[in-house]
Design goal:
By secondary structure, this protein is mainly beta. The chain is built from 1 helix and 5 strands, in the order H-E-E-E-E-E. The protein has one domain. Strands 1-2-3-5-4 form a 5-stranded antiparallel sheet, with no helix packed on it.
Amino acid sequence: MGSVDNIDEMKSYLTPRQENEATASYQNTTAIACPVCEESFDSLVVCKRNETSLSLDTVMNLCTVTNDDGRLFLFTHE
């Protein structure tokens, strides 16, 4: 699942949580493996803009994937 095309497909298996013009977040309720580290991840955050500010309430590990048009995909591991 490491390619961005597969990440876009992966979103259909995740539970949508929040979306605004800058970001969208999804919860991994089916224990899908992270395409970076291959461990189950907690959430996926998609940054829709090149510059986005995120506020994290808890300390977590992050794995990241970018694509050619600059979208950033953050996989969170609590």
